[in-house]
Structures are given as C-alpha cells and as structure tokens.
Amino acid sequence: MKCAIILAGGKGTRMKADCPKVMCKVLFKPMISYVIDAVKEAGVEDICVITGYKHEEVEAYLSQDIKTALQEPQLGTGHAVMQANDFIASHLGDDILILNGDGPLMDAETINKAYDYHKNNANAITLISAMVDDTTGIGHIKRDENGTLLRIVEDKDATEEEKLIKESNAGCYWFGGADLQYALSNITNENVQNEYYLTDSLEILISAGKNAGAYVVENSEVVLGANDRKQLNDLNTIMRRNINTRLMLEGVDIPCTDGVMIGKDVKIGNSTVILPNTIIIGDTVIGDGCEIGPNTYIDNSTIGNGVILDNCKILDSTVENGVDCGPFVKVRANSTLAENVHIGNFVEVKNSHVGKGTKSAHLTYIGDSDVGSDVNFGCGTVTCNYDGKTKSRCTIGNGAFIGCNTNLIAPVEVGDMAYIAAGSTITDSIPEKALSVARARQVIKEGWVEKKKPYKNQK
Asked: Is 362 a catalytic residue?
C-alpha cells in the first residue's frame, strides 16, 4: 500500500501572505491542491497532511478523507513528520511518500517512477533529486566515485568543491514505513538551529546498513516550490505554459497565448479557439468548435459545441450548443442558455433558464426567470425580481415578444405568443396570444414651452 505525508505547516514569511504558504494560489487554486491531486492520481490510498500556521484554514480546505496532524511549535522537517507518528505506526509494512505542500508542479508520473526505483532497488529510503544549474542554497547530493549515495550536504555547510555539485535534494522521499519510524526515532536536534532535520534520516539508515538511493527527475521543473511572490509567479508561468501546450497538442487552437490562463481541471474539445485575455477555471467543460474570447472569464461551467463567447463572464452555468454571447455579457450562477440562444451586448442573466432560440440583443436583465423558446427581448427589458425583501420569478412562454423598455414585475407570467408593447410595466399575468399595453396615454399640450419657458436661458 502507498501512503503519503504532506508537509503544509509553513507560514511563508517571505511570501508576505496572510494565509498559510500552501494556500497561496497557482492558477487560482491553492498549491496544496495540486500536490494532493498528484498523490491521489499516483494511486496513494492514505494521506496525512501536517499543518501548522493557521492550521484551521488548511484543515477546512481539505476533504474529509484526508487525515491531519498539527506541528506546534515548528522545529524542522523531521519534527513535522514526527507529528504523524500514529499515521506511520499504522503503515509500518507500507511505503510512505513525503512531499512538500508548496510543490504544485509535482506529478503522478514522477511520483510513480520514483516509487518503482524505490521498490526495484529494495531501498529503505529513496530521495527525489534534480539536476540544477543554479546551485545556490541547495541541498547537494553527495555520492562516491561509484555513484553510491552518501549523504546530503546543505549549501551553508558545503566545501567549495561540494558547492559545485549540481544534483539537488528536492525534499521529497519514499520510505519503507518501518524504516521511517526507525529513522525518526534516531534524529536529534544537535545542530545550530536546534531543529530536527528529515535529511538526517539518510545517514541514519545508511549507517544501519539499509539501502538508499536517489531518483533523478527527468524534468527539474517538477520539484520547484515557492518561497516568495516572484517564485510564485514563476510557478504560474510554468503551469500556464504546460497546460496550454497540452491543450494545443490535443487539438485546441490558441493562436496567441497572451493572457490565456486555463486551469488544470478544464476540458476543451477539438478545434475550439481560445483568444487572448481569456481565463477558464474550475470544473469547466467546453465542447468542440467553439470560439472563446477575447477577454472572457469562465468558471465551473459547461459549454456546448459551436458556442461563441466574446467578452463574456460565465459563472456556474450551462451554455448549450450554438449559443452566441457578447460582447459584455454576464451569466451568473444557476443559469442555462439553451441551444441557439443569442445574448447580445450588455445583457445579464442570473439564476434563469433561457429557452432554445431566444434572443436578447442588448441592454437587458433576465433574473430569476423561466423563459421559453423563441422569445424576443427588446432593448432595455428588465425582470424586476426583488421587492426589497423577497426574490420572485417571472415565467415567459414560448414565442413571446417583449417590447423595448419593458418592466416585468415578478411574480408574473407571460403566455405563449403574447406581445408586450414597448415601454410597458407589467404587473399582471398575460394570456397566450394577447397584446398587453401598460403605459400612460400620451398627452400633447400645444404652445406650452412658449408659455412656461422652463429653461433658465430660454428666450
């Protein structure tokens, strides 16, 4: 059985964040979420997260199937893992992965390749390492002339020769459960920082005659973390590039990646075009042959085939095949735009179902409404759904024609094929195929201007 301990107790002082470091976001998701996803995808069956700074925030974010242990005070990485003693004791016959919660680029493939290396070599401990060009501040992996792993040398303790070693400790490990328990029982805090270092477990296990090795990753980017906002930006850039590249290879057309930010969980169909300054996140699914953007934001929504979204904001909603929206359209939560709906400029839809083929070309608010098929909304129509205390719904039948500048005072029903004259304020339900006119009669007073001269400077 494969298990994992994820270290997530750091404050992230250099990040200058109010939240725990692992809750800082890459492409709008906390870093720890990527680590958990990778671990689960790798087939790890039991996870324990070590929390610390503002632990309540991390614990509230985690799903209920994940165990937690609190490190307080924080006395080093070895001390952090010690807080999972009960978890380790329940997995002495299993293999335990230890990862940092601020390493969102780590993937299941790397985890499993390191695990295969660990098992094939019957190791008690397997480090995950990377070859780097910048050796400043790294933990140098020291080997003998035969390549046998000897120890980890921290940069501050390294000789000038050791500082030239480019193989870096990534802070990620596979342990046999019993071997991890043994190593932890022998780690001491006899160092300048008076802390318990997990890296000491390597020499402890080697001294006990155990096998040890280091799996060198193929792509050094997967071990990157973030200690400050600049490094966080670097992670965003790499993650964004990787996702965009994968989608393009899968048949998505991104002619210019400027400003295009697509979340890891987003799924996009073939021949869909994503234009600049478009952000797509959450569990969003987009079909084939769509044109999304420019300047469009989609979160946790389902978009059908052949949809055009130009300068739109779509939140927690469904947009079916052939819909055309924009520019400057907002579709708020719990809305559905059925097939071939047209939503034009400066229209907002909220908590509504808009039926097949319905058109709202401009300057309209459709809120808390059930709209039939082939309805036409004139410019400036408003569903007045809130009386100051209660939200109420409007129901509009198939084929209805709503004239410009109409106010529908909810709750109200408009029957199939009903017509509403422009400028009407509708407070009563309208039968099907009826015409409703609800406006004051026009009055003309000839010569009124000359008599009253209402303007100050009028001669």
From this structure: yes
Q: Which of 79, 118, 140, 362 is catalytic?
A: 362
DSSP alpha helices (H): ranges in 84-197? 85-89, 108-120, 177-186
How would you class 237 by CB atoms within 10 Å of its CB: exposed for 0-12, middle for 13-18, buried for 19 or more?
Answer: exposed
Q: What is the CB neighbour count within 10 angstroms for residue 448? A: 10
**How many other CB atoms are found less than 10 A from the CB of residue 102?**
30
Compute the distance between CA of residue 446 and CA of residue 459 in angstroms, rounded to an integer. 18
Residue 447 confidence (pLDDT) above 90: no
Least confident of 168-172, 173-177, 302-306: 168-172
Longest pairwise C-alpha distance within the chain: 110
Alpha carbon separation from 127 to 161, 181, 223 (Å, rounded): 22, 16, 12
The span from the CA of 70 to the CA of 80, in Å, is: 8
| 347 and 367 Cβ atoms separated by less than 8 Å | no
Alpha-carbon distance 32 to 226, whole Å? 12
Distance in angstroms (rounded) separating the CA atoms of residues 163 and 141: 10
**Which two structure tokens, joined as six digits, stand for 98?**
């230890």
**The residue to which tokens 């470091």 are assigned:** 21
- State the Rg of the chain over Cα: 31
Q: Where are the alpha helices (DSSP H) in 138-254?
A: 177-186, 200-207, 229-249
Residue 408 carries which side chain, given as an amino acid letter? L
Residues of the chain above pLDDT 70, percent: 99
In this structure, how many other beta carbons lie within 10 angstroms of the beta carbon of residue 444? 5
